[in-house]
Design goal:
3 helices; Glutaredoxin; 19% strand; alpha+beta
């Protein structure tokens, strides 16, 4: 299952989350308000930037909200 790192009050995260909801996708949403999750994010991606999507099944990791939204549509539209 893809992992999406977000934080409260992030407009870019909200855009991605809205897309996830509209598409009816199931993602593992992890909020970096939890210090342990923030450390996990940095360990995975090297920086504390959100939104950040990891999809190990498709060997993909993305930071930019537009890129994430495009990827979700391209990868999961046929599966919904």
């Amino acid at each position: 299952m893809p992992i999406l790192y977000v934080k409260n009050g992030c407009a870019f995260c909200a855009r991605v989350l809205q897309t996830v909801e509209e598409m009816g996708l199931s993602l593992d949403i992890r909020n970096i308000a939890d210090p342990g999750i923030a450390e996990e994010l940095v360990a995975h991606g090297g920086k504390r930037q959100v939104p950040y999507l990891i999809d190990e099944e498709h060997n993909t990791a993305l930071y930019e909200s537009d890129d994430i939204i495009e990827y979700l549509h391209r990868t999961f539209t046929a599966n919904t």
